[in-house]
Amino acid sequence: MNVTKIGYARVSTEDQNLNLQNDALTKAWCGEIYKEYASGKSTLARPELANCLRALRAGDTLTVWRLDRLGRSLSDLVAIVNDLEKRGIAFESLSERIDTSSASGKLIVHVFASMAEFERNLIRERTQAGLAAARARGRKGGRKPSLSDDQIKQIKAMLKDPGNKVVDIAKQYGVCRATIFNAVGPIKPERSVS
């Protein structure tokens, strides 16, 4: 089996340059370096990362200059590294000196995974507490209704006239037909809904 070190370098904009990362990855013996000019917000918005991950084979090592070059959030980073581990691929971050081919590197990644889970639980708890506090003040969560109670009454009155079409009423109130149906309930079949 041919073991390869593959590098991944990323900067957020084309105004920045990859020289520092490229030099560090070359010095670390990366045979190939995938270079990306993209925000790290979403893995989907990083086509070179996708290409890099596809190129890696069992026994290879993915090397980055710093952890934040691979994932913007801790949970994103942990998900990528866990996927690599399942595929038999090691991960190395040069600045933080993390190498999952060693026991201590694997331990650090597991600590990161625990921290990511802890962070998700904190967010969930804060969200639940905020919703409970809002409910205690009489507020409901969710999106503001598209139609007020008065508008729904007006629409129901308009629908009593078979000459009024649902599509025209929807346009008048700036909503779609589905919003009208959701607001007023079923409309008699003899009425024209188009």
UniProtKB/TrEMBL annotation:
Record's protein name: Site-specific DNA recombinase
A Pfam family hit: HTH_7
Entries under SUPFAM superfamilies matching the protein: Homeodomain-like, Resolvase-like
Record-annotated Resolvase/invertase-type recombinase catalytic domain positions: 4-138
PROSITE patterns from the UniProt entry: RECOMBINASES_1, RECOMBINASES_3
Source taxon at top rank: Bacteria
InterPro entries the record matches: Homeodomain-like_sf, Recombinase_CS, Resolv_N, Resolvase-like_N_sf, Resolvase_HTH_dom, SSR_resolvase
UniProt family annotation: Belongs to the site-specific recombinase resolvase family.
SMART domains: Resolvase
Keywords assigned by UniProt, alphabetized: DNA integration, DNA recombination, DNA-binding
Active site: S12
DNA-binding is among the record's keywords: yes
